[in-house]
Amino acid sequence: MTYTEKDKNSHSYFIRTYGCQMNLHDSEHISGLLEEAGFKPAAEIGQADLVIFNTCMVRKSAEQKIFGSIASVTSNKDAGKPMIAVCGCMAQVYGVELLNRFPGVDLVFGLGAVGELERLLVMAKERRVCAIENLDECLIDALPCVREKRFKAWLPISHGCNNFCSYCIVPFARGREKSRNLDEILEEASRLGTDGVVEVVLLGHNVNSYGADLPDDVDFVDVLEGVSRIPGIRRIRFETSHPKNITERTIAAIAQIPEVCEHLHLPVQSGSDAVLKKMNRGYTRDYYLDIVDTARKLVSGLSVTTDIIVGFPGETDEQFEETLNLVRRVEFDSAYVFLYSPRPGTRALQMGDDVPIETKRKRFDELHRLQQRITARKLQSMVGKRFEVLIEGSAQKGDFFEGRTRGNHVVLISDYGLVPGMIVEANIISAGGHALRGRAEKVLCNPLLE
Ligand code: 5AD
Ligand code: SF4
User: What CATH architecture is 140-380?
Assistant: First the structure.
């Protein structure tokens, strides 16, 4: 049994996505599948016949927000409408428990079952369904895709993670690391290039361990080199790098391959060796500092960003002070700071959550303020200089176009005649706390003329 033509044409969908870029990209595949099956996107959640929650559970705060949102949509259900489905990390970890918790949810499906979505939706019309398959293959990449942006695309190179950082739910929600075949990645990159994509963001929870699980002798540098040879692709980004696996060879490739952007997102998580050990991060503070020094020496104009967790179990004032010192020493371009949040099934859960919430918040504020000052100083030092900027779209407020430098700094430009997808050389005229203001001086690439 499938959806009838009439059914399909009268069906609209809305996907609410939470979490990381991998989740956002998975939602592009879900949209692709649904649109190929005849569904139309709804402008608002309240107008959709099918609502899908693509969930994240990396922190409890995200989880509570999602539970609240599912509860509010399920409680407004009228005569069985809309159909409500939950997928993503929470589906993978909680499975059928979600059906018990939310009587209004019709379908729970895991990443491995995305390809079966149309069939599952038909089944869910008759009875509530939970479909969680194991995650042995990267099947999702072969599915249709509706990209959010025309000129910029996410390209997963691996799925899952083997690192088991003691605080992290990802290896439980997304399974062990599975690298995609290099030919498959390059074929997809080629299609993106032909389709007019100028910037590709290579995705993996640890891009630096790419290939370790494959029979062929390939590594992350092979991906960078291969993608850089694809016609049309002018910029390559990648996320996330793990300090324990990044090699000097990779850093040299970032320096030497012109298409690879000079930006390294290198989560440090803590500046204290004792905390890093308890986090099972596999490197020391000095090792991390050495990598940053080497990278800055080899890659001119490199921007370095990071993730930091404050209030990990047992973190003392002195250990937190070591994190502040590391941040002062490295001077990151920007940093995401998180309050530690205990997650089910993780090793850190057994360590207790003994740093009081007030202390966590105090540490968060102190670190955040320090980083804000550093970010503002860095942005200020770019004023009066020229940078290559890819125009990504119009900014949310005002009539500015928003673009990004190769270092991933946001630049707002108000010139007329710009279109998304253009790469311009911009003169930076002023700097705010988070973004730069620029003037386009020269068009380097115009998608309308290529
Ligand atoms: N608590 C707080 N932050 C976390 N992260 C991952 N797990 C947790 C957790 N349990 C942060 C890490 C990671 C980022 C994506 O989320 O800093 O790099
Ligand atoms: Fe989580 Fe660590 Fe894997 Fe990143 S490297 S996804 S923090 S387990």
Answer: Alpha-Beta Horseshoe (3.80)
